[in-house]
Design a protein that fits this description.
By secondary structure, this protein is an alpha+beta fold. It is built from 5 helices and 22 strands. It has helices at about 1-20, 215-220, 230-235, 250, 270-280, and strands at about 155-160, 175-180, 190-195, 200-205, 220-225, 245, 255-260, 270, 305, 310-315, 320-325, 330-335, 335-340, 350, 350-355, 360-370, 375-380, 385-390, 395-405, 410-415, 425-430, 440.
């Protein structure tokens, strides 16, 4: 029996050897060429972005109340508001006369969604951005030098910057905030925000632009302007602050007056005292919101790099800011000349200069016909977020501006989400299409 099993095994082994030798049975090769290793390409998809589109809900007019007597505007002294620069202030270098250069064409860029930033601990001495004490001006971070200022809404005044005959303008030296933005034809125009002081001559006052659908809402302000194109006027009258509009061509004296020594249409001027008085009569003088959003600290935070001169090119005009170490302020030039104020006789200065890059979109609204060519209104989208540069105390900070709700001010953050604090005092905003318009030295 055992021999039979051994014989069967020997026969099976012989059969297998035979099959192998004749090729009837084969095994797959294990060489590397028999296998192909799949290749995986990792594709990073862009983040989903949203663009915030403002909505406008009309607000009904309020019941008029009796008109009280307003307090005359205070005399600007070194003790309140921004530190004045004496007329004799001179810096050791003057900017060259610039040559206008064309701006880049409109290139849409998306606004990123809000980041889940951590809530940092405010540094010692910081004010805001989430809470501003009631005795502090939320636009400057300084104490109110006049308690009356805390009881009134800010005024947003539309001031001309072209042609050069409008310079020097009146009253910009008294503004808490000034926004310089591109208008049609690559010239610029200002929206100046007043709260601390009540100058009786501001101007020259010119027509509103689409950006003025946003700025008065940010600061809960009254809007003073000479007029508007049909398209912009229709949007203003249907806006959620339509009861706070003061249009020069329909309002007239004593709020708006014309200076006969200056050619029209550059001779319309605003009296802020009279405007606040009329706002009281209409029941819209007192602020309705607790303004906040900007942070202030007298001590510069870490992370800034030295900067002594900032040049911003708009095409037909150039703004330049030069840091003056002796006063800790930035002095302004326009098109190579010191930019003066006709009321104070001083060169315009700022505690902070903030460059804000925002998308500019051409619209179908015709602002004017120059030489038979239509110039269309620009929608400057100061909502969502975008890049910014902040200049204070001879330092530059790069960051991100944000405005996610219609009633929000612009707020400023580092890439890590920490607040960038402004120096207490007045601020000029240079609104641009892109940072390629800016040179920093």
């Amino acid at each position: 029996m055992r021999g039979q099993r051994v014989g069967m095994a020997i026969r099976a082994l012989a059969l297998m050897i035979t099959l192998l030798l004749t090729g009837a049975c084969s095994f797959p090769s294990t060489s590397a060429s028999a296998y192909s290793v799949p290749t995986y390409v990792i594709v990073t998809l862009p983040p989903v972005t949203t663009t915030r589109v403002p909505t406008y809900t009309p607000v009904p007019s309020e019941t008029p109340t009796p008109v009280p007597t307003d307090t005359p505007p205070p005399t600007k002294t070194p003790g309140g508001g921004p530190t004045p620069i004496p007329p004799t202030a001179v810096v050791e270098y003057l900017p060259p006369t610039p040559t206008p250069t064309p701006l880049p064409t409109d290139t849409p860029w998306p606004s990123p969604t809000p980041l889940p930033w951590p809530t940092p601990i405010p540094p010692e001495g910081a004010i805001g951005p989430d809470f501003i004490p009631p005795d502090i001006n939320p636009l400057t971070g300084l104490p109110y030098h006049d308690p009356l200022a805390a009881t009134r809404r800010p005024i947003a005044a539309k001031v001309s910057n072209a042609p050069p005959v409008v310079r020097p303008q009146s009253g910009l030296d008294y503004a808490d905030l000034v926004f310089e933005h591109e208008a049609e034809g690559y010239v610029t125009r200002f929206t100046a925000i007043f709260l601390t002081y009540a100058p009786t001559r501001v101007g020259s006052i010119r027509s509103a632009r689409l950006i003025d659908l946003e700025l008065p809402v940010m600061y809960d302000a009254l809007l003073a302007f000479s007029g508007a194109s049909n398209g912009v006027r229709a949007l203003l009258r249907s806006s959620d602050f339509s009861e706070r509009l003061f249009e020069g061509v329909t309002t007239g004296p004593p709020i708006f007056t014309r200076d006969p020594s200056i050619p029209m249409p550059h001779n319309l001027f605003l009296n802020t005292v009279e405007l606040w008085t009329q706002a009281t009569a209409w029941g819209i003088r007192e602020p309705t919101t607790n303004l906040h959003g900007m942070g202030f600290n007298s001590v510069p935070q870490d992370g800034g790099s030295p900067a002594r001169r900032v040049t911003v090119r708009y095409g037909a005009t150039t703004a330049q800011w030069v840091y003056e170490p002796g006063t800790g302020r930035w002095l302004r030039w326009s098109d190579g000349e010191p930019h003066m104020d006709a009321v104070t006789g001083r060169q315009l200065t700022a505690s902070n200069v903030v460059v804000v890059a925002a998308q500019h979109v051409s619209t179908s609204i015709v602002e004017d016909m120059a030489g038979g060519v239509a110039h269309y209104s620009l929608e400057i989208q100061v909502w969502g977020s975008g890049p910014c540069m902040i200049f204070r105390d001879g330092l530059r900070y790069d960051g991100v501006w944000s405005r996610w709700n219609r009633t929000d001010m612009l707020s400023f953050y580092t890439a890590a989400g920490h607040t960038i604090y402004l120096k207490p005092g007045n601020t000029w905003f240079q609104v641009v299409r892109g940072m390629d318009q800016v040179t920093v030295e």
